[in-house]
């Protein structure tokens, strides 16, 4: 037989969790037709006897809602093996929308997800009003990777309720929102998302519409999903992370109760964000027990977990710099990085900045560090140490060297020609390690996600979590147990694909899409984060590249090779669930 592509002799990790095996993979018309010993010829043969062959990664938690309208590759996620990106998370997005609400939705996205509003305003062309029209616009654009999206509650409220979006909805409002949900799901939305944490605020400081929705609204919208007969519900629960100083009107325990109860009542796939809090690091075990009980009663609930700490990177390339509230440093912030670093190396400039009292700023800020925070602040270093030990903190270094921690911070940030970062983990880092996170990821009830691709781009680049899971957790971790390769691949491919009803992908088997990663597992690793100004309107962001992805294929066509983007555009819009092939 003759095929389009044969990948020969690779170590196949098929996405099901099954043991690795050496096999060939044959592709015709964008579909896998054989996995095993393949005889025959192909228009292209790839020698993979030194490579690990996996399905393309399915990232269920991104915020590319705007970027997907101008960027066919969805960088940086495509550099990290992602071939399907699901957006519309956390209750926010850009459809449905009335024409007079464009700027309002941009400000909401900028406030909650730290995506530059100037880039969104310049890049989005607003070719839609209804959610179905938004899907049509996404489908018209040629793209390299597949995108799917969920209907966000905040945009829905604003569309139906206008200036009353923060109020309690009337019966007529609920009816109109319910119709829009059903219509959006039938048009091809993959689900719906609720954002309920008071820590999420717009640029003006207002909560996300829907943050304090009462149960009648939740029931109405979930009922509409049932009426449509499809869709995943994604929830950012109130209380997650102790609200990060927000107005805590609910606790996450109460949230897990309604999630479990309504999840069992309606039976739809439902995922909520779960992170470890330093103050109560064992709370997650209680939530997981409640979920398992609910699932035995008919629910399909999955706590969604990350693969590293939730926090920020502080430095001269980050929006968060420890010295930005000091007037002398603030006056230098517009200088190009190289020139700024040259000025900062002057001993007189250092003495002047360290002698200044920080401004109060606009309320509590991670920039205004204290003795406790210095114990949680770590140089990222050449090894990109996202699981640093306590003796590597700024506080520990200062104590060993008998120096002021501010002095240590200043000098540290001048490392790597001013490109050094300080890692400030806020959640998922109880006890200065990832032991809790390992147990959460190892629990089969959890769902891998929380990479936030496209979001928080001024302070992190967590879209690289896929690579981190495959390199650090599988190969490099020494401070505790690792994750088996087969488990890691399953959590990035077959598991999330199945949960979202995407049975056509996530597994290397005949009849499935030929979305494939060819990985040099020994070479797989992250580059240092860097700031670039490549968004519309020249807006900046932090990106992070990777080594080890020899090729990433979508429908059998190479979209990234050796870290470089190709001109292939085999991707498209994922409209609704896709059944698994028969046989």
Automatic annotation (TrEMBL):
The source's domain of life comes to: Bacteria
Name the InterPro entries on file: Amidohydro_3, Metal-dep_hydrolase_composite, Metal_Hydrolase, Metallo-dep_Hydrolases_sf
Domain Amidohydrolase: residue ranges: 44-559
What Pfam families would the database entry show? Amidohydro_3 (PF07969)
Among PANTHER family, the record links this protein to:
COLLAPSIN RESPONSE MEDIATOR PROTEIN, HYDRANTOINASE/DIHYDROPYRIMIDINASE FAMILY MEMBER
The protein, known as: Amidohydrolase family protein
